[in-house]
Amino acid sequence: GASTCASCPAGSWNDEFDKTACEICPEGKWTHSSGSLREGDCTPCVGGGNCLPDGDARVTIELRNFPYTGLDPMQMADVEASFVRGIASACGTNNESVVDVFGKESSVTISSDGQVSAFVKDVTSSSANELAARLYSSSFRGELLNSTLAIIGIEAHFSIGAISVKPQAFVALVPTSTMTTSTSTVAIVTTTTVATTVNASQTTRVHGAESVDPWSMHWDIEQSTPSPDLEQSTPSPDSEATNAATIQATASPWPLMLYIGLAVGSGAWGK
């Protein structure tokens, strides 16, 4: 009997609401859903016999107010081992016959919502009805409660809820894993430095135009090709006048033409 009202699990029935225990179906018959109210809901098992055609049965136990996140790994392992011993003893098998949903022997699976799942394999000495009679009993429920409280602490508001047995061939679940691929991008920055050498020279602006000072050009040439004679020479006044005329002519062709015309006229007048 459960401490609170609950539907009768598979393989049992109850026609009175004030009862705290369910009736087990007769041998060779079974109810395949919970909540049956009449013995007539128990139907013959396929193939007859003990209603365990594959010799396996799934056992599910509800844990109420189970402190799943409050237990350390050692305490959780102790709770699992306690359930393995209790289920194996009730079913008349050894601990290795009790496996979790992944097939690990002497183990049960406890989910975060407080549900225990396990399979009892290779049951040969008991029928499904006999397993149900033992696992649904108040004595089995009391043993699980006391052994669990001894591990997690008697002050916990913990209780055993619904227990069900389902004839089912064992098929191990395959653990799933998630693979995460990360891609790293490396940015390579190349800095190119361009060195530009600019030779400064003096310029002379004539009427808005920019021209190169021939003296500066002449000095650059002399610097690039040293010559003792050239370095010691001093420009004559006549050459300075000639250079000035050249600069003026380079800046604008009109003064040059005017200068040539005056020179020609002077020559004609001299004659």
Question: How would you summarize the topology of this molecule?
Answer:
Layout: E1 12-13, E2 23-24, E3 29-30, E4 43-44, E5 57-64, H1 73-91, E6 98-99, E7 109-110, E8 115-120, H2 128-135, H3 138-152, E9 159-167, E10 203-206, E11 209-212, H4 214-224, H5 228-232, H6 237-251, H7 253-270
Antiparallel strand pairs: 1-2, 3-4, 5-8, 5-9, 6-8, 7-8, 10-11
Helix pairs in contact: 1-3, 6-7
Structural commentary:
With 271 residues, the protein is of the alpha+beta class. The protein has helices at 73-91, 128-135, 138-152, 214-224, 228-232, 237-251, 253-270; strands at 12-13, 23-24, 29-30, 43-44, 57-64, 98-99, 109-110, 115-120, 159-167, 203-206, 209-212. The chain has seven helices and eleven strands. Strands 5, 6, 7, 8 and 9 form a five-stranded antiparallel beta sheet that branches. The protein is globular, with a radius of gyration of 54 Å. Residues 193-233 and 242-252 have low confidence and may be disordered.
Features:
271 residues; alpha+beta; two-stranded antiparallel ribbon; 7 helices; 16% strand; globular
Mean pLDDT, rounded to whole units?
76
User: How far apart lie the N and C ends?
Assistant: 153 Å
Q: Give a quick account of the main beta sheet: strands, pairing sense, barrel closure.
A: 5 strands, antiparallel
Order of helices and strands: EEEEEHEEEHHEEEHHHH
Query: Radius of gyration over alpha carbons?
Result: 54 Å
C-alpha geometry: globular
Please report which band the strand proportion falls in: under 5%, 5-15%, 15-25%, 25-35%, 35-45% or over 45%: 15-25%
Number of strands: 11
- Multimeric state: single chain
Structural class, by secondary structure, is: alpha+beta
Question: Helix coverage percent of residues?
Answer: 25-40%
**How many individual helices?**
7
| Unreliable stretches | 193-233, 242-252
